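Dear colleagues,

As part of the handover before I leave the project, I'm documenting each prediction I ran so the next person doesn't have to rerun anything. This entry is a single chain, and its sequence is reproduced below.
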Amino acid sequence: QQGELNSFLWTIRRDPPAYLFGTIHVPYTRVWDFIPDNSKAAFHASSSVYFELDLTDPYTISGLASCQMLPHGENLQDVLPRELYRRLKRHLDYVKLMLPHWMTPDQRGKGLYADYLFNAIAGNWERKRPVWVMLMVNSLTETDIRSRGVPVLDLYLAQEAERMKKTTGAVERVEEQCHPLNGLNFSQV
């Protein structure tokens, strides 16, 4: 029941009210039916919407991509223990082999090719920092592959906000996201 759904919406009582809504980085279709009507109404009523990052900005996307890379000249093979690197490579070979079987007919109908999808997700993985490779591997499951092409909740809301001509922005810069993750030592990762 809609009335029984738990909300991640906080209201800041002022005139007009302001809201803080907690999102999750999963395809919006997985969670949309569980977002309470009051949260959707607050989004629609708002004239300005600010996100963690501006995922509609190409500079944000390129900044996220570049921050994931190891320093120039370094390779993942140089920083991971040999056996872990071999296991990772075998796993990624397995994912690449399975990807065509994991894709949906709808994805194929939209002209999405398995090689393209693999490269979009895992391309240049040998140059990425271990923490980003770990996050990438966690998203290389059959369930996640089947939902590729569906925007994550944050991006969906940003696209909707732009479509509705709302003012949009971000509360963080790419560096504020990257530096803490890149600052983790190997044992933490």
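The radius of gyration is 19 Å. Residues 9-183 form one domain.

All the best with the project,
I.
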